[in-house]
Amino acid sequence: MEFADLKEKASKYLPPEKLVFLEEAYNYAAAAHTGQMRKSGEPFIEHPLNVAITLADLQLDSATLAAALLHDVPEDAHISLEQIEKKFGADVAKLVDGVTKLSKLALGPGIEDARRPGGNASLRQAENLRKMLVAMSEDLRVVFIKLADRFHNMRTLQALSAEKRRSIAKETMEIYAPLAHRLGIWELKWQLEDLAFRYLDPRHYRQVANLVDSKLAQRKNYIEHVSAILQSEFEKNGLKVELSGRPKHLYSIYQKMEKYASQGKQFEDIYDVLALRVLVNDIPDCYHAIGIVHSLWHPIPGAFDDYIANPKPNGYQSLHTAVMSLGTTPLEVQVRTYQMHHIAEYGVAAHWRYKTAGKEDVNFEDRIGWLRQLIEWHRDMRGAEEFLESVKTDIFNDQVFVFTPKGEIKDLAKGATPIDFAYRIHTELGNRCIGAKANGRLVPLDYQLKNGEVVEIVTTKKDRGPSRDWLNANMGYIKTHHAREKILAWFKKQERTENLERGRELLEKELKHIGIKTVDREALAKAFKYENADEFLAAIGYGAVSVHQVSMKLLSQQEQPRVITPTVQTAKPSSQSSVSVMGTGSLLTNIAKCCNPVPGDDIIGYVTRNRGVTVHRQDCHNILHEEEKERLVSVDWGIPKEELYPASIRMQAWDRVGLVRDISTMVAEEKISILSMTVTENDDKTTTLAMTAQIKSLSQLTRLMAKLEGIRGIISISRVGADGSRSG
Fold first, then answer.
1. Beta strand pairing status for 275-280 and 329-337?
2. Which of 75, 498, 520, 531 is catalytic?
3. What's the predicted TM-score (pTM) here?
């Protein structure tokens, strides 16, 4: 690359005096980096030049381009910001300073940092991201430079080690590509995704690339054919348009292939791999053009989206439709104005084009409303890791757009519920929420909102506060981290004694569920980074720690069986389950019917006389009272396999119509099969239900029991052995 390449791109929208300014910045940077080389072997000046060229494609202002050329000068050439300010002005110096600070943060630890003893890699990454996003609120151009910087680094990633390449690619996919998407910079977003995809999953990358290449000539001929038909039709109707084919990028195709594979569809069924873009002069022409397309070819039901009337939060506007063209071939068509197209390609960056041209972009504040919201949330978050989780779940996830009863549009993370919506509107509205309506009909509070719905929250006048069940991840009441933080804040204000007692009850109940009798609470508190057991129990009480998290932590700590004594030498027939007998090689193993252990349980083997080793839970009644201790051997679950194990559950509930139906429905929703169920009516108007289900693992069983416990009328639930003995 030469400066002439940058000059050619910039001259299309910058006046001559700004080009002279850019050349001065380039010469200054080239002199400062003289003799310096990149790991790829090219002169160092190639990097800032490529960054500036990428930003020129986005048509950013001269100060941003100059800062891009100079952004590595303070760090690598030891030239002060004061010198840069004196030479190029305060605006450029401020941008260089911002990029330099972000570069020092490195947005996520390097491989060496991650390996450092005692280092908390995720915390550092979270804190760095937090600082970067907060810096965005001061001047978005800093982040434009950082995105372009990452884009060129990804294009030259081959010079680094395989481990480093994967680490940077993962960070790019998780943070930079979604950030480009939320800023509306489509051109950078899709290229960053494809580059990251190449290093994160090379096998599938090659597979998709080969599929696309094999159909390239065929698709090109098809697009030329339908374009000619459409062009003729537009001319007949007196409509001036510009037609072009729109390539689908590889990572997007891969995502569609994964989704379609689950539906039994093939690559050829992906209708928006073939796409046409239609550019027109004004909004009335957009609707005129889409009408012509629909009159020519049959629209695919449910595939029309009007992003002109309902723009995306990043400012994107367009009409999308899919039609069955030429009889049987699905085709996506996008229609937009030239100005909409520029914003679609360059997003928020397009704001500077209008700013430098002396025009006002009246929608700019709306486009970065999500960023303002982000800064507000940042003030409420307790720490960096909570902030990172909020960004990933609430900002970078797919969006759903719903309306308030007054017609205001609100964007939420896909899968958001009425409770998420209520807390998005106002904390007090969330705290008083007792019901919801979508498009005028009552919906449950765990209902997943759909695009275009009008959502109304039903509230109580009493100051009763949110339900603790809302914090149970297994019950699906909330999706967004923002709602979770607000609910937690409410419970933290409640009496400490109440939280402590409730936490103790929840922990005891969970230990009983998973069959653990005793646990070192102080050690468990330290594992969750709480100072003492009381603080930990209070956190469980107000919902900061879920009992499911506790059970998973305990199970991960107990991967190795505890009661291990002798080893046994015997023959090696193939095992019937994914259990290995330690110290003996392969042995025939069978799951004990008396206690029905499942993967995750602490287990021990009992050597039988003619059926190999029978695998029991360590707390099994028969094992605890076994007199021939020499028959006990150490066993392990070994390599996980897709096997199913019977697990028995006993439930005590108030008798009511529909109880068995609700239980069966809940089990079916978890994709679990019921082997048997018996129901016994008691004299006190309660009923006892004994159920045996096919379970893959202890974590699946724990999740099922947590959901069953939330069913109306359930008093208690516990796991039992086949002999009727209860766990714990």
1. parallel
2. 75
3. 0.50
